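Reading a protein record of the kind used here takes little practice once its layout is understood. The reader may check this reading against the record printed directly beneath this paragraph.
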Amino acid sequence: MISLFLCLADAPVLVVPRTVFADGRIVTSESRLAWPDDAVVRIEDRDGELVARFDRPIAPARLAAFREAAGDAIGDLRWNDDSLVLRPAAGWTMRWRQTGPVVALAFSPPADGSLLETADDSASDAALAAIEADVAAGYPGSALRAATSLAHRYPADRRAARLLADTRLAQGDFRGAARGYRALAADDLTARRTIAAAAGTASVGVTARDGSDLAQTEFAARIDAAVGDTLDVGGGVRHLVSSVATAAPTVRSGDTVVDASLAAAFDGAVRIQLFASAALDDAVTGGGARVTAGSPDAQFRATLSRHMPDYSTPAQVLAGGYLSRALIGVTYRLTPGVVAQGDIGAYRYGLAAGSVASDTIVASAGVDYLIRRQYPALGLTYRFDAEYVQRMQLGADRLAVIPLATRENHTLQGLASGAVGAVQMTALAGWTVDRFGGDGPTASLGLAAPIAVAWRVEGSGGITSIARQGFAGRQLYARALLTRSLGDTP
């Protein structure tokens, strides 16, 4: 992270007759950006923009105070862990001088309100650094818009074209990024992996979860392939092995589910997915649609599904079951270090035979706070996960056909993340409290590593005290996934 110590003083303003000065205000003092004495600070000035690169942390409160003090003189101020970009407002001029780790800045207001443009055949370093700063700060949406505009303005600049491809990748647009890398004939590892993944992926995985009354292991295989520039077609098969603890000896069940999907991506970061699933053993078939709009830093999502095969409760495992869902949610990055999200919806649980159903209202929310970006990255996460039972269908014995329990989990965890070579590791540990009874530890460790160009292996496991339907109390879980990209791997 970047460290920034600001020595700020309000700039007094002198009002004089316009017959004396062309501009009615004179700024009589300078604002200073001061780093620690031992910091290494490099300043670049290109096309009126100031780019600072440094090696010590920055204090966001100091930057906020600097922005407030400079007021209308600042057109843009962006920063990340090791760089800062400052651009004056339209028509304003900015002068600076550096003395060691201290940079003094003086702003002059426009004389006539106009902004003079300079012609150039290549993008400025400052403009490129500003986009890179946006991506690093977690704003791929605004970075993509700026990178697209820059690439159109300077079509012959390979740096702008490469940055546009990199920004598309940060946005999650593998095909758009791959087109950019191909046009540049890029052959670095990132470009080759992206080109390979843009054609689609094939994966096999296993997930296991062990609770007090229900234990499940799921084996899955899936293929997703790109069709043209917009469509993705996917299909897969899952086999679920469940063990249910009853008054009699433990009952084991095996169920096979076939999945299919069709997704379309449109301009403006809008993605629509249609999906369907069929349980071969229970004759349960369902489908639905999912819509997402926006970039990862500001996104809206909605899901509507009906009669999807489901085995999340012991009753559904024993008799075959389905789940219908209606959900809406949003994710929004409040600051470079704070992300908030929330979802709300309704669930309907049912059995394969008959119209028996139980209804619940579900809600989830979370806040992620990044304390440190540099290795290892450190942060705090809070998660709210709740399900409120509204109606349970009763059987002839006056007992619930699908027993459900209201739950409201609150989880606070610390996060540490970093890369060791090519292996990315993420660890979380904290505590969960259920307002309706029960608490305990929640911790996990996740690993992800690319292998050569086309392969990727992921694994995770841990313990959780987040209560779920069918899984009350503490549970152990583990997951492993092997993925192969379907594209060419030169």
